[in-house]
Design brief:
By secondary structure, the protein is mainly β. It contains one helix and eleven strands. It has one domain (19-189): Jelly Rolls (Sandwich), CATH 2.60.120. Strands 2, 3, 5, 8, 9 and 11 form a six-stranded antiparallel β-sheet that branches. A five-stranded antiparallel β-sheet has the order 1-4-10-6-7, with no helix packed on it.
């Protein structure tokens, strides 16, 4: 209907519907493009370093909390890699346009030396040496909303994208100090 999948990134609909129509629509709750926690996400963040990804029920937003390895002697600090932290899955047999991927609500930025968030079409073991679809860097002064994409991106039918991060702790960060942010996607169907 109108060439847009109403279950992908729909913020609201104004109108009147019958109970029967609502029941039918309500059965199609699964979003077409969704964020999923990857294997680098842990249910516990007591070990250092570790990361935790909490996916919101809509599957369009995730809350990420993580620690970075802290060395008492190295300066600059060594890098911590989370190479399969989250996945962005297109669960349908049509392509979708990702309008935006944004990072917001940054917490614990003072614990960062530098952090780079990458989006890849294929999972890598070397994000800093690979070519991403998009990336964004955070430092101890980062705030507001930061975009991961410079333009819209098409995700093919049944494709999976990977979100990886590489970070360095600030020299002043304590061992196990946490940093976090929210990641949000907005997309629409390219199927007409």
């Amino acid at each position: 209907m109108w060439g847009v999948d109403l279950h992908c990134c729909l913020s609201g609909v104004i109108g009147t519907v019958s109970a029967r129509a609502f029941t039918t629509s309500n059965q199609l709750k699964t979003p077409a493009v969704r964020l999923m926690a990857g294997p680098d996400s842990s249910s516990s963040t007591t070990t250092v370093p570790s990361a935790r990804v909490t996916i919101e029920p809509t599957h369009y937003e995730a809350k990420i909390s993580f620690s970075l390895f802290k060395s008492a002697s190295n300066n600059p600090q060594p890098a911590t890699y989370y190479i399969n932290l989250m996945q962005l899955n297109n669960c349908r047999k049509v392509s979708y346009t990702i309008n935006s991927i944004t990072i917001s609500d940054i917490t614990g930025a003072s614990n960062l030396g530098r952090l780079t968030i990458y989006l890849f079409a294929v999972q890598t073991d070397t994000p800093t040496a690979s070519t991403p679809i998009g990336s964004a860097s955070l430092t101890n002064t980062s705030h507001g909303t930061i975009s991961l994409l410079s333009s819209t991106q098409t995700i093919a039918a049944s494709a999976t994208y990977y979100i990886e991060i590489v970070g360095h702790a600030a020299p002043s960060a304590g061992t196990g100090s946490k940093t976090g942010f929210n990641l949000n996607i907005q997309c629409m169907s390219t199927h007409r």
